[in-house]
Amino acid sequence: MQGYLVTFFTQQSRRHGGKLITDWMVDLAKSMKLKGATLVLGSEGFGHAGRLHSYHFFELADQPVEICLAVSEEECERLFERLEREDLALFYVKTPVEMGTVGKRKADRETPSA
Q: Is 19 helix (H, G, I), strand (E, B) or coil?
């Protein structure tokens, strides 16, 4: 299946709609019935303004976070249309990908033997 890997970059403390933006994005993905979202915590990075964001033991609020979604073309269009209606700005990278599932689910492998 062809689609996109969409990665949004933000900081752990950032909020939208009264929620952490990471929670808000995961809830949005669920409500749109997207197949999943993955949060990746970074240890250090810098943004467009050149300001360093990093993970410190006592200060986790500025920790860089990636929100990754593998979506079909139709899901991607719906997602971006929805985000355009929000009062927020998020930097993203959208990469064309081939996606699918390899192997079998555990339940499919567990067949009784005679």
A: strand
